[in-house]
Amino acid sequence: MDSTSHHQQFKIILGSSSIARKQILSHMGFQFTTMYADIDEKAIRKEKPEDLVMALAEAKADAIVGKLQNIKNQETDGKSTLVIAADTVENVEPKLHGSEDAEPTLLITCDQVVVYEGVIREKPSNKEEARQFLKDYSGGHAATVSSVLVTNLKTGLKKGEWDKVEIHFHDIPEEIIESLIEEGIVLNVAGGLIIEHPLVLPYVKQVVGGTDSVMGLPKALTRRLMNEVL
After folding, report:
1. pTM of the entire structure?
2. Does the keyword Hydrolase apply (predicted)?
């Protein structure tokens, strides 16, 4: 399944609005469309970070499958009108059961939290919390726990797993923290942690694991799960 986008034998929907995840999946050589799962993440609570990210990836997948079902139902309603208007049912049959059903569609949903001193951190709720998060990481370390769930929409088969990466930091100067808060991107990411950011990168001491996982989409895991559901 190392096929590039030119001879990709399946469709992919990335169930995420994350720019980093889109970039990683593109770099992996895949063509895909994106959909966003509109769920209340705070309504889903688990004690263990691994359980939480898996539950959220599942909830996102369920929400997107529901959206797709609604779209399909609307299209089917439209097509049934075509059947009545057509001279013969055969004219319409290929459109309903044609090439679009021949290849499977894989839905990829993900989630991520940061764990600091055993406490789960999601997106900062305000600037003060983001500032505290970054001050905590300065000279210390944190971990990201990322989940990937791949659902084969044709067969219903789904496989998911989580990946954990440790990040160690040098001391981060206060003016750097303030610049990051002012810019605001850190407010939109789990734990306010974004190691690929040009302001943060110089202060990353060591990453134990894959940087792609820290950015939200572990490549090797994603490929393996895609293989397992095809």
Report:
1. 0.85
2. yes
